[in-house]
Structure formats: C-alpha cells, structure tokens
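It would be a great kindness if you could assist me with a short task in structural biology. A protein sequence and the structure tokens that stand for its backbone fold form the material at issue. I should value your view on which stretches of the chain appear to form regular backbone elements. The record follows directly beneath this note.
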Amino acid sequence: MTENTELGANWESFVKMLLHRLDIPTKEDINNLHTRLDKLEQLLYQKQPGAKRSAQPRAAKRKSASAIVLEIIANHPKGTNFKTIKAATGFDDKKLRNIIFRLDKIGKIQRVNRGIYKKI
C-alpha cells in the first residue's frame, strides 16, 4: 500500500525541522516573548523593592509608564504629538516609542496621523 502524501506537507515539515535545528525563532515564539515581557513589566510595576504592601497606602501606588503616557494622551481629545508626550513625561525616545507601540497594539490609542496619537 502506498502513502498518499502531498508535497506541501513534506515541505512544511522540512521547514519546521530546519527552523528547529538552526534554532530560528518563529513568529509564534516572538509573540510568546512579547506576552511574557508584558507580564514581567506588569509584575515589576506591582512590586516595589524595600516597601511592604501593607505599609503602603493604595493612593500612593506608582503608575506604570504606559498609564502615564495614556493619561497624557487622554488629556488631548483631538490628539497629541510625540514631542508633547516626551516633554510631559521626560522619557527617552526609545522607551516612549515602545510604550506608544504597545498601547496602539492593544487598542488603547489610535494613530491619527504620523506622530499624532489619541485615546480610543
């Protein structure tokens, strides 16, 4: 009895084997890393070294960098530009661009034009 295999199935298994042997990350691997980084960032903002949870009042909790940027964007209903956000936060370019990218990716803000952002 002969096996009825398609060329596509063999090609797919060959590519998977090649990616595995050469240790090349797939898109799924990178998305998993992004998810893990987001969770790690959340944990870092929740736990502050040297301070006990019971001794720290709820109102004195530090906001995350994403929350600060989102608040600044929300204060401008028609949208605000990168320069305004940078001046208000004091964050460096790379950090601010990463935050804006993540906020756009999760759907909290919208890119109106190039460099102009508003809260959804």
Observations:
- The longest strand covers residues 109-113.
